[in-house]
Specification:
It contains two helices and ten strands. The protein is α+β, with helices and mostly antiparallel strands. The structure holds copper (II) ion. Residues 100, 137, 139, 142, 147 line the site of copper (II) ion.
Length: 155
Amino acid sequence: MVSDVETVEKGVLKSGVMVALAALLTLALVAGACSQQDEDGRAATSDINSGADHYFDADASTLGEIEVEVRLHGREIEMAPSLPQGRVTFVVVNEGDAEHGFEIEGRGIEEEIESVGPGETAELTVHLEPGTYSVYCPVSDHEEEGMRRWLKVVH
Ligand SMILES: [Cu+2]
């Protein structure tokens, strides 16, 4: 457990991740104390999946809201393939050396961060209902070059 935390810490030098880890550890303890919830994160008291990986920033003070890290590099969008429904803030980090953006489309919404410069971070908050969404980079023809993926939002 401790070694896992250290690995993530070295890999991602962001203070936000430390906060996320602390929150996840807290959640894990809470979940452990409240008997066994089912494994797929559908706990009645929270739509935060405490078994999630480090993409999730589970802030216990804002239940029903989550922060999701999105990394852009090369012609790839790296992010969790599925999320729980609710208010989601995408924290989009451009780790590449080209301008990128972030757009999410589906279930009647279409929201975007038009541009994120190299090395920059931008945030986009949306309310997501269960369903399948298309996520892509709206810059130039990056979408066709591979910067697109599906995001599944579940109950
Ligand atoms: Cu792009």
